[in-house]
Input
Amino acid sequence: MANRETSANSSAGTAKIQPATGKLGVMVVGLGAVATTLIAGVEAVRKGLAKPIGSVTQMGTVRLGKRTEGRSPLMKDFVPIADLNDVVFTGWDIFADNMFQAASTAKVLDKDLLQSIRPYLESIQPMPAVFDQFYVKRLQGTNVKKGKNKRDLADQVRADIREFKKKTDRQVMIWCGSTEIFLEPSAVHQSIAAFEKGLEANDPGIAPSQIYAYAALSEGLPFANGAPNLTVDLPVMQELSKKNNAPICGKDFKTGQTLIKTVLAPAFKARMLGVSGWYSTNILGNRDGEVLDDPESFKTKEESKLGVLDYILQPELYPELYGDIYHKVRINYYPPRGDNKEGWDNIDIFGWLGYPMQIKVDFLCRDSILAAPIALDLVLLMDLAKRSEELRGIGIQEWLSFFFKSPMTPEGLYPEHDLFIQSMKLKNTLRHIAGEDLITHLGLEYYD
Ligand SMILES: NC(=O)c1ccc[n+]([C@@H]2O[C@H](COP(=O)([O-])OP(=O)(O)OC[C@H]3O[C@@H](n4cnc5c(N)ncnc54)[C@H](O)[C@@H]3O)[C@@H](O)[C@H]2O)c1
Output
């Protein structure tokens, strides 16, 4: 009989995926705590000094076929993902420190580990950045490009990309830079033509992150956004993405508190338990915390962190359970903790006959330790998307929602925030492009 658990899905992709041969060049914008933890971590894994824990592409498996078949290859063996030995890093920062100095300043990784890979880290030097303090109030740096207008700056980033193209076979760009001030889309973002005019005219609606994204997408590079900035969720970027087969995806890495939120909230909804309040507060003392201490950058982060509950709990469908929820998110800069964030959640829920209960979560996490494997997975999967005939031209890669606080969707489609729906979507997309049956978990055929 038809394999019902694995779905009689006939839509299994037959389109080709080019092999991951040659060097994958990863261009990182912002070489701070997350980026140095990523770059040093990849080198440590390559040298056999540590394991890539937290990386879905390196450690995760994908079940294929029926449960009785025992086929669960590693994701990296199932689809052609670039080998870590083929990954080459470069990037930009407003500080000229090499990766050893920057990782030492970030104080995420042990000195011993950094010493053991010191020559490698010292060999990576940031290129001068496109930066304007108007968009990140708390930072000031000297390793900054000069240009007669934003168009000139975009051309300089494109020249950097072209240089890197000579040294590597394929390239992706990822934003690991600071959170910029809150911006809203305007007329300048509505088309490529309007944006290019805006670059010439130094339109204030064009932030540095948009200049990098414009340069990447114009050069055909996929672009992933680790921060909550308004960077690629703009018509101009979607147009460029499709036009140049340069995939884009959501924004703001889903690392600590929001990860837990998108696990707990679906559980309450699945059990039809009500939620009356959710108070989330954080203390962190790294440079990201300092930047987010500025109200304008915090606003950008707040919007991203607040969005998830509404979409998961669907108050419009369940007004008695979630129609009157009080949701608050706070981030407090507290230097003694450095990169080791503490996130508290107080959740007021109610059950049978409306009786109230409380849940307290205290997550003593390490921000960049959680973010680095996400950044790695994103660059590897965006490169895979670029090599997939079926995915490269669709623009937004919604199947990568799993990694983001603010997943991206086409206009009119709400995003999926539930971590387990996102995980299923990710794995089913890989099954689909590899020509395997999708898994629906129906499973009735085991009882025939
Ligand atoms: N670590 C996490 O858990 C996590 C989770 C989600 C999102 N993020 C986001 O990731 C980003 C990086 O976080 P981090 O902890 O590494 O911060 P960080 O402050 O250590 O590093 C950011 C780096 O970006 C640089 N930068 C700023 N603007 C730049 C520009 N225009 N061009 C080039 N470089 C620029 C800064 O100089 C700094 O070195 C932040 O936006 C943060 O909000 C982090």
